[in-house]
Amino acid sequence: QVQLVESGGGLVQAGGSLRLSCTASGRTFSSYTMGWFRQASGKEREFVAHISWTGYLTNYADSVKGRFTIFRDNAKNTVYLRMNNLKPEDTAVYYCAAPGTASTGRVDYTDDRAYDYWGQGTQVTVSS
């Protein structure tokens, strides 16, 4: 049974930093693109970042570009999201996600429909 477990969320002041972790179990995701999404209260889930299975290719939403960094440690089956210079508008539940099949160049990984497995989410709250 595949499980994704996020951790690292919390309450931080604007301008602060957090590092989220997502550890997978039940399957090795070293050949899979992994993604982070977020959902603010009353809003739809939105793409944040994704990373190729090698870790060399990354993509970010414009709203987080230059502030967030996604990286992974395949030996630990873990993907991370380092978030710097946090803003109140970053407040949301953050989810990591994994597709059901290995990485392919024909999939739009900014679309949450590309993912089959989701973690339970971790709350990030940024106070002004």
Question: What features would you describe in this structure?
Answer:
By secondary structure, the protein is mainly beta. It has strands at about 5, 10-15, 20-25, 35-40, 45-50, 60, 70-75, 80-85, 90-100, 115-120, 120-125. It contains no helices and 11 strands. The strands form 2 sheets. Strands 2, 4, 5, 6, 9, 10 and 11 form a 7-stranded mixed β-sheet that branches. The protein has a 4-stranded antiparallel β-sheet with strand order 1-3-8-7, with no helix packed on it. A hairpin with a 4-residue loop joins strand 7 (about 70-75) and strand 8 (about 80-85). It is globular and about 40 Å long. The termini are far apart.
Q: What is the compact description of this entry?
A:
The protein has 128 residues and is an all-beta fold.
Keywords, please?
128 residues; mainly beta; 7-stranded mixed beta sheet; 4-stranded antiparallel beta sheet; globular
> Which percent range describes the beta-strand content?
over 45%
Structural class by secondary-structure content: mainly beta
Reported for the largest beta sheet, the result is:
7 strands, mixed
What number is the mean pLDDT?
A: 95
Number of helical runs? 0
Unreliably modeled segments: none
Oligomer: single chain
Order of helices and strands: EEEEEEEEEEE
How many E-type strands? 11
End-to-end CA span = 40 Å
**Could you estimate the helical fraction of the residues in percent?**
under 10%
Shape call: globular
Gyration radius from CA atoms, angstroms: 14 Å
